[in-house]
Write a structure and sequence with these properties.
Layout: H1 2-11, H2 16-27, H3 33-41, H4 44-52, E1 61-80, E2 86-103, E3 109-117, H5 122-134, E4 145-148, H6 152-161, E5 167-170, H7 172-186, H8 193-206, H9 212-226, H10 231-238, H11 255-258, H12 262-278, H13 284-302, H14 307-314
Parallel strand pairs: 1-4, 4-5
Antiparallel strand pairs: 1-2, 2-3
Length: about 325
Amino acid sequence: MRDQDVLWSTSCCQSLREIAERWSALVGSSVGLRTINKRINQRELLAHQSHNQSREDVPDVIHFDGIWMTLVEQGETSKPDKRKRARHKRKGRRVVVLVALGFYKDGRREILDWEIAKSEEHSHWEVLLHRLEQRGVSPENGLKAVVRDGGGGLKQAIELVYGSKVIDQRCIFHKLQNVLKACRKDLPGDEHKEEKRRLMQEASAVYEAESAQQATERLAAWASTWRKQAPQAAATFERDFEATLGYYQLEGLPRSWVRSTSLLERVNRQLRRKFRQALAFGSRSGAEVALYLQIQRLHAQWADESWWETSHDLSFDLDDVDP
């Protein structure tokens, strides 16, 4: 019961101090933060197992994105603490969590895997993509498309791992956001507010076309209208425009799955709640467990299952993990 309580509580963003305070009141004696943290981090084996399990079913579409958090690392220099004991200085370092969210034709969605990395360079994305491929997530087993933002590192990794076997869809939300940023430079100030609004409405309407050919024709008409007033916006929209049209090749899948990474952005907001509560993670293993528990909570939510009951099962799952 205590393990279930701590798993449920920490995944709901309660702090170690809050959990320790409640436990201390229940048992009638002081419960330390290390005791609570140790119980949580025992699930590291489950997190490790989830990175390596083979996949029997493969999603049709995967969204990829990165979300930043802080890890506290031990430095080489030391200083005395209050008791005059030598303690290594610690400092925070920003790292990125690379996330893969899969969508299936039957409506299911699942976070397939994640990787804590130093950056979003292609070499780090390759680690995640190669691991997914080794687990069976490949075009040969049913993967049809990947959706990403405009980052070059991920694009390179996809080309190296999957080549041209999957449709590489550039997120149209990020594309339009870039157009908006350029538009604000072309048409600064409140006096151009109405023009900016019309420009963006018409830009969004390009992606409501019935086919890729029609979308291309709409872009040409849009650019001829706005190029003189907003040259930077026009150049931004035209740049790599074809990379945003991959979703027209996919039939039988909701457009919301294949046009943008907005659904993964919602997942990232849930993960950020935990990052904000923790402020910084004291170890990579602690961050791995925190991510694993948040992901299990989301999976329970998407399956309309009780997180309280799911956390109860997780409190016993260690018995099934090979040492």
